[in-house]
Amino acid sequence: MRHVAPTPPRRKLRVATASLAGCFGCHMSFLDIDERLLDLIDLVEFDRSPITDIKHCGPCDIGIIEGGVCNAENVHVLWELRANCKVLVALGACAVNGGLPAQRNHLDVGSCLARVYRDRAGGEVPDDPELPLLLDKVRPLNEVVRIDFFIPGCPPSGDAIWKYLTDLISGRMPRLEHPMLHFD
Amino acid sequence: MTTREAALDTVLADLLARHGRDPGRLLQILLDVQARFTRVPPEAVPKLAAALDLPIGEVESTVEFYSFLSRTPVGDYRILFSDNITDRMLGNQTILDHMAKRLGVRAGEVSEDGLVSLDTTSCTGMCDQGPAILVNGIAITRMTLRRADQVCDLVRNRVPVAEWPADFFRVEHNIRRADMLLGADFMPGSAVKAAIALGRDRFLEEMRISNLRGRGGAGFTTAVKWEAARNASGDERYVVCNADEGEPGTFKDRVLLQYYPERVFEGMALAAYAIGARHGFLYLRGEYLYLRPMLEEKLVELRALGVLGRSIFGVGDFAFDIEIHMGAGAYVCGEETALIESLEGKAGRPRIRPPFPVTSGYRGLPTVVNNVETLCKVTEIALHGGAWYRGYGTKQSTGTKILSVSGDCARPGIYEYPFGVRISQVLEDCGAVRPRAVQISGASGQCLTPREFGRRIAFEDVPTAGALMIFGDHRDMFEVALNFAHFFRHESCGFCTPCRVGTTIQAKIMDKIAAGHGTQYEMNELEHLHEVMRTASHCGLGQTAGQAIADTIAEFRGDYEKRLARRDFEPAFDLDAALARAREVTGRDDADSRLVEEGWQLRETTR
User: Fold this and answer.
1) Phi, psi (5° rounding) for residue A139?
2) Chain B residue whose CA is closest to A140
3) Quick check: B240 and B367 in contact, CB under 8 A?
4) Which of A96, A135, A150, A177 to mutate to test the interface with B (most CBs of B within 10 A)?
5) Is A89 within 8 Å of A151 (Cβ atoms)?
6) pTM as predicted
């Protein structure tokens, strides 16, 4: 991969990231940009993100979200990022299409819960208000809030994420082409 | 072994014998199995795979692919409503709801006693005499509430479909304007004799002079195709007649097959003569099953006449015969390479081209695939010569074109015009009622508005496979585009991602707009999606799947905008309702078990 040195913006952009119903694989792939993380740190600062462990985000320029929407908490996180980020990016197959977790969509969520907690564990379905309630189906992000950019792939490669982010940061229309654009 | 299994074995053994244990006839065998058991029983799959020496996965894939085959039983009476926009405009929804109520079964379901199942299907090619249904594969036209009641009674009393009133099954030709093809008398055998008198090379030369171009939509020059197949290397060559007329709004091939079958078959024989083929296939769409007995009879007649058979009309090396293959409800099989896959018994997924069928088609051998109408045209050229033929039409589009006219007009039906006819002329002749738009060439074609009605039907201007659907000024063009979006979602073969995913997202967005939850965001998404599908899809289906939407957005944006919500964005579904089931199971009703967008930030910060 050619080392792309983007023009630095006037001020550091604020970036938030979150993982909803995903496997953190896209975040791992994000870390795969390796030493370019150091270049990135010169260009952006991180707000809410697993990297910083900040729990709620303030006004940001870019929000990057991995994973689909499977429960009420996911919806709240998504709302929070949408309200605070100028640009929201859906990262990876689950965020774009629901992905693997959406395989439960042809099952009734009620009977799933009953099967796991009642039939197999012999207890009751937990009703602790601390636990986020499950949605009947796992949804892609764009069915819940407006999404500005989509990066497909399971996961998208570190190179693809780097290309996309540096395009965005430099104010170019982000574009992925073969072989970086793939859906699997 | 249970008696049921023994019965299955007997039937399978009989079918396998009848189809000569040919793996290429898998789809034909499966269609027979479906007809016999109202489904393809799961235990039949490994048995067929073993008998035909095919992987189980391939048999499964074929069963899954075609919408007329099903793994779960359909009713003893399987009623399918043609759901093209023209059927909708004629009120098929009302009739479907009425029948559902009377039969006590919902659309998409089978009645509890297994007697009847009700569902919709893509356009069945009866747009000029709809609303149409298929009962156990046989077409019934001009449905009314009264006729629906009669059908319900017949089903309830378990009267075999063969004994239903013949009037139900009457399919009119509705030929409103006949020109050089539809208006001419034809003596069976005359065209083949004429070609033989000319000799192969001179006949091909006449074809070249005629500049005949394919009538299926692509407009490829027929003589070039034939010559390529003739010059390709291979021990066998094949002629295939593409009678998989699936494009919504098109029904001209149905009329040609029903009323001019000699022309079609003789056109195939002429192609065979030109390229040196011995075998031909007529690939007939499943919806036209009712034509099959008549076509088989016609083949017998032509064999007796000597138009088909060995050393045809005394030419020693000219032997040719035709076999009819049935389709099974897959629009994509109209694409020639998908059709060839289907002929080989497989799922109809388009192949990668090149190689083109002319060098590597059926079973990897040189194959010519021609449209029904093209083959009819060939007989004219054999009889009258290429120069005569060129005298009709325009420079690049010679001869006449048959149009299937439907929608809001006084005289829907078949119109044959020399190429170059203005759309306004067609509209005047068919008595169009205050047309607001015309959809040319079906769901994958283009949508024209009154300011373009002066344009001409020809490859140089408005190319068409023959469909012309008229929408009066009281029609909502969003409904038209919505219907097409559902059509493409159903018909995408699933092979390539842009089309498989794109057609589904497109239909979802259209449904969201229809439900009043669309915003400007969805409008942008539709245009973006069309661009992705157009440039990245594997075959024409995906490439054109967003065309009607793009056209109607460009011309009739108001029909979309009146449905848009005023907000920046609306979720695709009711968020709070999506939690209802989990609330029920956990028995919770606290604040966190609710999703209400208004004021959520306030609650977050004060907790």
Assistant:
1) -120, 150
2) B572
3) yes
4) A135
5) yes
6) 0.84
- DSSP 8-state assignment for residue B158: T
Q: What is the dihedral of CA B33, B35, B38, B43, to 10 degrees?
A: 0
Identify the CA nearest to B503 among candidates B539, B471, B557: B539
ipTM of the complex: 0.79
Q: What is the DSSP letter of B484?
A: H
Residue B2: is it exposed, middle or buried by C-beta count within 10 angstroms (0-12/13-18/19+)?
exposed
Q: Reply yes or no on whether the pLDDT at B42 is more than 50.
A: yes
Tell me the average pLDDT across B168-188.
95
User: Looking at chain B from residue 490 to 519, which residues have their Cβ under 8 Å from any Cβ of chain A?
Assistant: 497, 501, 519
Best CA proximity match to B368, nearest among B404, B305, B328, B320: B320
- ∠ CA(B459), CA(B465), CA(B471), 5° rounding? 105
Q: Which of B517, B521, B532, B592 to mutate to test the interface with A (most CBs of A within 10 A)?
A: B592
Tokens 């929408």 appear where?
B471
Let me know how long chain B is: 607
Instruction: Tell me the shortest Cα–Cα distance from A184 to chain B, in angstroms.
Output: 10
Beta strands in B539-589 (DSSP E): none
Dmax over CA atoms of chain B, in Å, equals 97
CB nearest to B588's CB, from A56, A75, A133 = A133
Q: Is B385 left (phi over 0), alpha (psi -120 to 50) or beta?
A: left
Q: Is B230 exposed, middle or buried (0-12, 13-18, 19+ CB in 10 A)?
A: middle
Whether the Cβ atoms of residue B289 and residue B137 lie closer than 8 Å to each other: yes
Instruction: Note whether B581 contacts A110, CB cutoff 8 Å.
Output: yes
CA separation for the pair B240, B322 (Å, rounded): 9
**Radius of gyration of chain A from its Cα atoms, rounded to whole angstroms:** 18
Q: What is the pLDDT of residue B596?
A: 83
Average confidence score pLDDT of chain B: 94
Q: Which residue has the tokens 């792309």?
A: A4
Closest to B593 (Cβ–Cβ): which among A113, A133, A144?
Answer: A133
E strand map for B327-371: 367-371
Two tokens, residue B597? 């967008």
> What is the rounded CA–CA span in Å between residue B350 and residue B357?
11
